[in-house]
Amino acid sequence: MATLLEVKDLRTHFFTFEGVVKAVDGVSYEVEEGETLGLVGESGCGKSVSALSLMRLIPDPPGKIVSGEMLFEGEDILKIDMDDMRRIRGAKMSMVFQEPMTSLNPVLTLERQLSETLQLHRGMSREEARNESVDLLARVGIPDAERRVKQYPHQFSGGMRQRVMIAMALSCNPRLIIADEPTTALDVTIQAQILELMKSLTNEFGVSLIVITHNLGVVARYADRMNIMYAGKIIERGTAREVYSNPRHPYTVGLLKSVPRLDLPRRAKLDPIEGQPPDLINLPQGCSFRDRCRWAVDKCATEEPPLMLMNEGHWSACWRSDELGPSALDFYADAEMLEGATNGGSAADSEPEEEN
Amino acid sequence: MTTMTEADQRGNGASPENDILVEVKNLQMYFPVTAGIIFQRAVAQIKAVDDVSFFVRKGETLGLVGESGCGKTTTGRCILQLYKPTGGQVVFDGQELTSMSTRQMRVMRRRMQVIFQDPYSSLNPRMTAGNIIGEPLIVHGLVNNKEEYRERVAELLQNVGLNPYMADRFPHEFSGGQRQRIGVARALSVDPSFIVCDEPVSALDVSIQAQIVNLLEDLQEQFDLTYLFIAHDLSVVRHISNRVAVMYLGHIVEVADRNEIYANPLHPYTRALLSAVPIPDPVIDAQRERILLSGEVPSPLNPPNGCVFHPRCPIAIDSCQQVIPELREVEPDHWAACIQSPGYGSY
User: Model ipTM?
Assistant: First the structure.
């Protein structure tokens, strides 16, 4: 597979009165053609800022991309001027935002909003754009598209609006779609519908997809590879299968152990990561996770661990990565975690497999 | 799967009648839709909660799950009498609440409290954490002097894992998880026996969610609390609840013990809901069966006839369009409202 996008040492900082917020601080990754990449982290870890940086939509001031390279189809899109960037945005790279309620213009019909991109980037006439809009809505599964296209955003439910956003993102046959928390505002059953739709559309058109989320389940189900971010840096990356089964960073282990699992017997206690994420203005020296880390040693306070290669394509930024792995993920490490043998059998096969 | 796993039902085995703390009977909450500018008249009704009955036993946690707009929050608020229900009864520890006067209700509120979803908007930004926590103490006259007040606030802060010196700080100086702890401390201040937790962890990051869930469990043990835990995250609900009730469009469609409902879901909606939750493990998740529901939740303004779930139901038959299925105990301690669930009987 060819590499579609290569981000090298991207740094996006915000210059505020209180100091410099290093929202993204030295992030490198690449996106292959046709793959789905998950970008995981908690609020404030820099995952949304790194996506906005890709689109060069960082509000300046106070934000600024201070260094880095972003090679999109071989061209550094950080160096091109804003007019050229505008031609790429929406046409070759597009974005699906988190809030389907606020990212559509409430005073324009969907037809107007969908046609705008089509007329601008694909040079269609108004008539062509109108027909194409109807096709697009039908493609993302909106029934009665002919009539619905003339309606306003408030006449659509949250799930339907997110479908419209996806239709808009797809409208110019982009090479890359960045979906920033595409389903966070939606209910679980609708979330499943939207994600299945995105997956099938990206497969159908060979589009690469970056999914930004804090939901570990969503990444497990839909991503080929994943990056885990903490305090502005990628701390672990690899294929989803590898990272989930063989996590090598204490933060990844902590995240996986802090969520209750439907498929496993109930634990008596959850295993949270203690403490709070650090302040991005005053990042501690050394590893920024060390205050919350169970494995921290003296070295972590002085030297910041770089991303180190573990296995083929699996990287982790921890001095003690070699000691982690599947064994660290033992959900029932404490004997008291297991809550009586009675629960064991029933929950493990909690699948509704019978007649429907 | 008819036998219940008794081992993990803390103290639920004893005589069920005396054990019940909160009982909701045929609760209805209809909101009027009005038209007109000066002379407003009701033109329609939103049936947010329609004929809901359930009970919560002393010391247990009942999870209430469903999608947004299904009426779970409204149910919680009706129990606390924050809304005056359109119909039905709420019995708290033997006393009927819906017919109580405001004054009588104020006394009852000392025994029932609420924790809200959004720790960013539910705390008054102009009050210090100490005053937020201490306000109920003054309102209900639970302290006699300033010294007692300060001591009690400090004690409450410690109960929820904050430091007493934080009493002088304002909400904006706290992180989301810490704010939710303040909300918990305020609910605890009047020493209640029942707390409605309305999506208390939904707005928090995953690593912080686990901290709050553990805190709620510890406090339940320490102060002998009963929870109604309202949430849409099924894995969290399964973790914290003893029993789980599933709501859809104003109706409860299934109630069962937490292990039973996940191992043996009887209602097609429960099954779809469970299968929609992705498991954070790609290998295991790929093996799961998915039931993708088509369409969306219909509007409560104009709910479907018969079973409200039938337009989206993968196993619906003709009768589902006519019969409104009542919640029946189809297996011991397992209620379902689906005419096709085994053991439902004639309809």
Answer: 0.78
